[in-house]
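User: I'm curious whether this sequence folds into something compact or stays loose and floppy. Could you predict its structure so I can see for myself?
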Amino acid sequence: MPTWLVIGSRARERETAIAARLETGVPSVVILEGLSDGCPALVFDPADGPIPFDPVPQVLRIAPGCLHCSGNLILRVTLNRVLRRPPARLYISLASAEHLELLRSWLSEAPYGALLELQPDIAA
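Assistant: Here's the prediction. I'll summarize afterward.
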């Protein structure tokens, strides 16, 4: 499954970059590290008007912390849950790009290496 790592200094910028790449008819999952900055671009509420995507992307938020170091277990559990019903596309938004290459390497190893097709990073 095509998978993008999304980096940028602010949560809103990363979420906006992901939202710009979502397509109707393409089931997608977005894993966001950390808290929203108060203006999330990936909140889909029918009360706000029509939702532009069908199906609605699944947005999962996980605790902040380096996804390679302290967040490794959290990311592993989240990925395992997502991969039970793999989407067509996966986006992983990182609050810090400090260990980006280590995370990319970890995602390229078994078991994820056979399941994820890492794409070029998205810089927001």
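Summary: The radius of gyration is 14 Å. The chain has three helices and six strands.
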